[in-house]
Amino acid sequence: MKALAHMAAGLASVSVAVVIGKHTGHPFDPAGLPLYYAVGVGAALLPDFDHCGSTIGSGLKTVMLLLSLGMIGAIVVMGPALPLARLTVPLAVLAYYAAAMLGGHRSPWTHSLWPLLGGTVATIVLASWLRTGQLWVDGALDLGIAFAAGYGSHLLLDSCTRYGVPLLWPWVSRNVGPRLVTTGGPAETVAVTLSLVVAAAPLVL
């Protein structure tokens, strides 16, 4: 589906998480809601980075190019004095990006349970490190939930399109999903409308 549908679904998914948290004894910090919604929307767009024509794909392509040039510049300038440990994360990011691009749009690199789980854990760890240096603090866990909700909403919507998604790879090699709608069709407009209605749920529930 298109970016607008995914953004609306990202908002809705975080709202659902907020309502569930409120009624299960794990309320989200109201002061952090803008950040949680931003993470959810970003995560809802993220799987389409493997398509250069997408909203996030075009921007991320530039970021990856700049990252590559920065690494090359650091290696040229510092040479053997450059600590190899500092290249680990950038190299891992570039390697994952390259694998996803080579895999094509909606490959298991971006549209399966693995990136959903990996991205959620990475979000929690990164948020913990940035905020307190302690793992599993409430704020970091909430961010992880927001990421999982947004990313999961993308997989759910795409599974409803004709092509489906390789959600259960490698256990199930074929794409799965209801495959009921066509991208850009009337059903997508309905999905956007319903998502925006659900996104307002915390205001009344």
From TrEMBL:
Keywords: Hydrolase, Membrane, Transmembrane, Transmembrane helix. This is Metal-dependent hydrolase. The keyword tRNA processing does not apply. The chain crosses the membrane at residues 62-81, 112-130. Pfam families: YdjM (PF04307). GO terms for molecular function: hydrolase activity. InterPro entries: YdjM-like (IPR007404).
